[in-house]
Amino acid sequence: MVALKAIDVKNNFKSICSQVFGGETVMLSRPKNQNVVMISEAEYNKLEKARRNLEYLMMLDESEKQLQEGRVVEKTMAELEAMAE
Prior knowledge:
Blueprint: E1 2-5, H1 6-11, H2 13-21, E2 26-29, E3 36-38, H3 41-68, H4 77-84
Parallel strand pairs: 1-2
Antiparallel strand pairs: 2-3
C-alpha cells in the first residue's frame, strides 16, 4: 500500500490511476484521519463478492442452527401447491 497526500494525487492523478489499475492500493492521507483508499474496480468487485458470499454463508449458518433447534415449519406437497394457487 502506498500512502500519499491529496495534493500528490492531484498532481499525479494519471500515473497513480495506472498504479492502482496495476494492482497497487493507494491511501490518500487527509486531515483529521479522513483518509480515502483507492483500489481498482476489479479489486472492488472481488471485495464485494467476498462480502456477499460471507452474508450468504452467515444466512446458511443461521438456517442450520434453526434446523438443529427444531425451529422449522413442515408442509406437505399438497399444502405447498395450495399456497401457490
